[in-house]
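The protein record filed here:
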Amino acid sequence: MKKTQIKLIVSNPYFDGILKDEVTNNIISIGVKHFWEQGYTGRGVVVAILDTGCNYHHLDLKDRIIGGYNFTNDSAGDASIFEDFNGHGTHVAGTIAASLNNVGIVGIAPEVSLLILKVLDHRGNGTVDTLVKAIDYAINWTGPNNERVNILSLSLGLSSSKEILHNAIIQAVSNDIAVVVASGNEGDGDLSTDEYSYPAGYEEVIAVGATNNNNEVANFTNTNKEVDIYAPGVDIKSTYIINDYADLTGTSMAAPHVTGALALLINKYENLTKSKPTESQLFNYLMQHTTKVQIADYGEVISILNLSIDVSIDDYSTEQSDNTLDKSLLMKCFCEARKSQAFFTQCLNENSTENERKFLISLIQESATTAMHIKKLCQPF
């Protein structure tokens, strides 16, 4: 797909009238200009990227990095060297946060701060234990000005669920950290069949599938009931370690679109409500900024990221469906149900006997069914 150099005229004086960085088509397609024009650029938000590290000398990224840690054996295991020798993590970072600096491209949230947690080595390999340690590190991290992590970005996955990883995810969400995860690239192009990877398969995360250049579900993306949202994931140009920029394809490229969008949403709703949104509130705001698309062949409704939708705070309390159901209230109930499931599961793992576990598992399953029913009621189709 051909990328074009764009001079974007905007009203916010932050941009001095003309945006000279390249705004790639995938960034334009999600409606990010709508937030930029209002002055929301991710400032003050911290995103922890758990990946292959980052090219922290890159001109588009060097000013975005607030800290980092190497959890791998690369660089002789030196924790202070979180350099990317693979390219994957650097590409993810650029989509989220490439600086507005008249160089190269611009990311979705060009003033966000990045905490680089290197959990995958130069081959793209890592361990569950390493990943869990990095999540715990992010939860407890404090920045130089007492900043805390707001979002985890995980463009990685496992073929099977691991309890220790699930517990770490639950802990992050219980600390009001949104966890964004790529859904995986094992899809068969058939929305009626399910493909799972983890942690994307956990209810507590925000699982992201990929769309192609025609805004259709990409044939490689994992699809299942836990995929919350879809975003561009084909031929995505971003920062890299070789020749500075590269085009890559995958749900790994889709997930950072949602991560960057969440950073902008935090900016906006902190400004409007004068308080930091909880994880469940942030999920609610995200889903309000999506386009619902009916996939006729499969009878499925999917949510595609669309930041151009103008949603006011009042809309959450006044929006009514045709059958008088309050969708705003239902969505809030769904978000709280997700959070309750996370807390319930944590209690289950920490405090229960085997017999109690069996009983509580049945309650959790019932809660999950109820939550999904609530979510479906919120859909317009």
